[in-house]
Amino acid sequence: MALGHWHHLNVSKNRVVVLEHSYHGDTIGTMSVGERGVFNKPYNPLLFSVESIPFPKRGSQQVTLDALESKCSKSQDIAAFIVEPLVLGAGGMLMYGTDILKAMKEICERYDVLFIADEVMTAWGRTGTMFACERAEVVPDIACYSKGITGGFIPLAVTMCHERIFKSHYSKDKSKTFFHSSSYTANPIACAVAAANLEMWLEGDVLSQVKRVAQMQEQKLHEMSQLECLVNLRRTGTINAMDVLVTDSGYLSEIGSQLYLKFQQSGILLRPLGNTIYVLPPYCMTQEDFNTVYDVIADAVLELTEWSDRFMRLSDTSDSMRLQALEVFERTVLARTATACECSPQCNVRQLPSDVPCCIGALALLPAV
Ligand SMILES: Cc1ncc(COP(=O)(O)O)c(C=O)c1O
How far apart are CA 31 and CA 20, in angstroms? Predict the structure, then answer.
């Protein structure tokens, strides 16, 4: 739509600027504007090239703004900047401030670059206001909404645009038509659900529920900050996220699937992004629900890291620390899960099950103490 806009105005702008670690979907187009990596490597030959700017990490936000300004000012062909406002979801629940979002929009305005807000995850109260852009007083040129638009119950997505983009496609010249849609465009059932949801937003007091959930999240974040094995605890609106301290951090971290399994066994549906645990609760959650969820998280994290925490400290090990770590290993892992090696009755080596964190794999080779 952004490219169509410039094309219909006879302006030669066709490149897109993106933010590092972004996720916008799984089509060739959306993968092209998302973070490149193991997830989309097979499709690399088909992905189009984009301009990427660094994520605005705390303390180096100006680097991001300077990079955006430099990309927009140096080349005349930048059509649009696409961004997940305030929270980058699949990229690791990375959060940044409203001032940065606002500054990014101002830069785009200065160079007539369209500002596309991907609010698929952040809209409908998630960040504390109905839309994340609202918090930064930003009005995007194009906005993408989904998930919460039907309360998450039925698939529906909406792409909205500023009137000037609508107008550039609105013509008696049929070649300017916006030709694109999908099989289920404006599906009546999905739209009815969205309309019912909107009614609740307009008539009910959803934002006070959002505020209540945000407060409970803040309280829980504070409680979780007492656990040494959790770092980077963060919240934006109703979204809490925290990273488990591991040696292989990232989306492919071993601990992700182990946590997922433990959460599932405890009746909680949480899907960690590698070693990042996030809680994105429905707004009807009660205090008891929150207590249950975070008790489960604390138990799982403690169980899976008690041993690896100590293992990490083995790098400056003394014999006594090493023995202590082995003792923890024996108590927390072997006693519960390992099976005896059956090579001979005298052998006292025990074998680890395959779901034990990889960082303790090295010690699996040691005889049990
Ligand atoms: C921010 C964001 N954008 C885009 C998408 C992709 O949406 P869809 O799966 O509907 O294409 C997602 C999905 O999780 C998302 O979180």
Answer: 13
Q: Please, is 16 exposed, middle or buried when counting C-beta atoms within 10 Å of its C-beta (0-12, 13-18, 19+)? A: buried
**Predicted local confidence at residue 204, as pLDDT:** 86
pLDDT confidence tier of residue 358, bands split at 50, 70 and 90: very low
Instruction: Give me the amino acid identity at 243.
Output: D
87 lines ligand 1 (CB under 6 A): no
Domains of the chain from N-terminus onward: 2-203 (3.40.640.10), 205-369 (3.90.1150.10)
Closest residue by Cα to residue 94 from 22, 173, 1, 195 = 22
Residue 294 contacts by C-beta under 8 Å, 6 or more apart in sequence?
A: 220, 223, 224, 279
- Residue 118 Cβ inside 6 Å of ligand 1? The answer reads yes
* Separation CA 99–CA 65 (nearest Å): 11
State if residue 85 touches ligand 1 by the CB under 6 angstroms criterion.
no
- Ligand 1 nearest atom to the CA of residue 27, by list position: 11
For the Cβ of 121 lying below 6 angstroms from any atom of ligand 1, the answer is: yes
The predicted-structure confidence for 305-331, as pLDDT tens digits, reads as follows 875 555 544 444 555 555 555 665 565
Specify which residues 188 forms β-bridges with.
Answer: none
Confidence of residue 349 (pLDDT cuts 50, 70, 90): low
Using CA atoms, how far apart are residues 38 and 174, in angstroms rounded to an integer?
A: 41
Nearest of 12, 45, 24 to residue 90 by alpha carbon = 24
Percentage of the chain exceeding pLDDT 90? 79
Question: Does residue 158's CB lie within 6 angstroms of at least one atom of ligand 1?
Answer: no
Give the tens place of pLDDT for each residue, 57-82. 999 999 999 999 999 999 999 999 99
Structure tokens given for 300: 């799982």
